[in-house]
Amino acid sequence: MGQRIISSRQREILALIETDGVQYIEELARRYDLTTQTIRRDINALCDLGHARRFHGGVDLPVEGSNISLNARAQLNRRAKRLIAKRVAADIGAEATVFLGIGSTVRFVAEALRDHQGLTVITNNIHVALSLCDAPSVEVHLTGGLLRHDDRDVVGTDVIRFVEKFYATYAVVGAGALSPLNGLMDFSYSEAQITNALLENSQTQILAADVSKWTRNASVRVAPFSKLTRFYTDRLPGEAAATNALAESGLDVVTCSEDMT
């Protein structure tokens, strides 16, 4: 039996949960001008697929402090991620060596790099490798290691050893969450180690993450903003603490919109 496809409205509800947190059935029914029974069916479908967790009267993310599956993440804020990916790819020149790390936004960056000439890509992200495997002008190096089935990536010390054999022009990484105090955060220590290895073995360090990452809670510190060169995002959060932290770090922030070429 094939993978179930969620509807556009269900994707929007997931994006609302990701961006704004807990959503309530009555409010969603008013938002979409639908009955509460219809919204409950949407929520039940999302929960049955493991994308969300229901409670009395509402829905939120599956488990506090844990990440949802890569396929679910790829559906969240899809338009913003594509805009970010397009702009990142536009700023990566031909003949570059590029680390592409873990995460759904990085997966979109890989798709946007398919027509680049003479790229060398090193990745532990299975979706990145699949996106680029038939791009004739891109040489792909896929690391060895432990395959994580839900995330479609490879982790472990073998990944770090492989990465350390290269010095990349660019490292493009995502984040599980963003914190004004701690910078990049993630849900997994193994992911954090690999992201650090990519940053440390590259000339230009690029973070690609949409605004919803500021609303998430993750427990593993990855790197402060000062370790990054550029941050590509769809928009900045309204909180002064976040914008102040970015300004103080000296990080170059690029906001991506549809009118950018």
TrEMBL record:
PROSITE patterns: HTH_DEOR_1 (PS00894), HTH_DEOR_2 (PS51000). Residues 6-61 form the HTH deoR-type domain. GO terms for molecular function: DNA binding; DNA-binding transcription factor activity. InterPro entries: Carb_Metab_HTH_regulators, DeoR-like_C, DeoR_HTH, NagB/RpiA_transferase-like, Tscrpt_reg_HTH_DeoR_CS, WH-like_DNA-bd_sf, WH_DNA-bd_sf. Pfam families: DeoRC, HTH_DeoR. It comes from the Bacteria. Keywords: DNA-binding, Repressor, Transcription, Transcription regulation. This is DeoR/GlpR transcriptional regulator. It comes from Rhizobium leguminosarum. The lineage of its organism: Bacteria, Pseudomonadati, Pseudomonadota, Alphaproteobacteria, Hyphomicrobiales.
